[in-house]
């Protein structure tokens, strides 16, 4: 992060960041670093271990988010300390799943409790995957590693910290939200990483709740279990997965991330109070911390 190359990149980013941050600041959460995305078509051509932000930027594969883009936010649990996917297995599952959506060989199982009457709009969404863009933290955030310090450390002025703090705003800006939760093994701990472990992580819960509380008509969450299985998250799963009870690598992140979730909830309540439906307003009001 202290290299001359990193400093030059930060300077160039700052000069071209105003439009990206302004457009990303239309929601509840503040965006303090531009939102970078990768074309799905380019991602499908990638192989092996995913390359980081700096490499993709040099190759010209990163694009600054624009409102006209259809963007898929990918939430996932890291499978290594220095890399999110040291073996490339997680990204392989995502590539195959996206390709299966594009060619129509896989559909997402419908949770009737959440989708009654809304099927047409979601079908249209999946038809747009071929020309969509992906937001993935490893691609979008410069010099991202597993942090030793929290979100309020002395490095908060760096591009990396500002981008991490902007993740809730990035979630708000995305049209689809995908949780990549295949059953794989963490390369360092040897522990199983899957849907249950993803749902236990505090930051993953924060991304999930920011999606559910966003002021969008479609707030559903797609769970990708394998390249052949995907379904929508069940309401009971997210209702009992509070940010406050999540696991954080950095304990000091807990309070900060909880406040992000509370801000998103308050915005959702205000929206429902104004526009309804009343049943949803009452449900979300009951979720407010007392």
- What's the arrangement of strands in the largest beta sheet? 2-1-4-3-5-8-9
Number of domains: 1
Q: What is the 3D shape? A: globular
Strand content: 5-15%
The tally of beta strands, per DSSP, is 9
Q: Characterize the largest beta sheet: strand count, sense, and whether it forms a barrel.
A: 7 strands, mixed
H and E order: HHEHHEEHHHEHHHEEEHHEEHHH
Low-confidence stretches: 1-19, 113-121
**What is the tally of helical segments?**
15
Secondary-structure-based class equals: alpha/beta
- Over all CA atoms, what is the radius of gyration? 18 Å
Q: In percent, how helical is the residue content?
A: 40-55%
Q: Kindly, what is the distance between the CA atoms of the first and last residues, rounded to a whole number of angstroms?
A: 42 Å
Estimate the mean pLDDT confidence.
81
What does this structure look like?
The chain is α/β, with parallel strands linked by helices and 290 residues long. It has one domain (36-241). Helix content is 45%, strand content 11%. The chain has helices at residues 4-15, 18-24, 40-45, 53-58, 89-103, 112-115, 119-127, 137-140, 159-165, 167-173, 195-200, 202-212, 235-239, 253-275, 278-286; strands spanning 36-39, 63-64, 71-76, 133-135, 176-180, 184-185, 192-193, 222-226, 229-232. It has a seven-stranded mixed beta sheet with strand order 2-1-4-3-5-8-9. A two-stranded antiparallel ribbon has the order 6-7. Strand 6 (184-185) and strand 7 (192-193) form a beta hairpin. The longest helix is centred in the last third of the chain and has 23 residues, at 253-275. The radius of gyration is 18 Å and the shape is globular. The relative contact order is 0.15. The model is unreliable at 1-19 and 113-121 (pLDDT under 50).
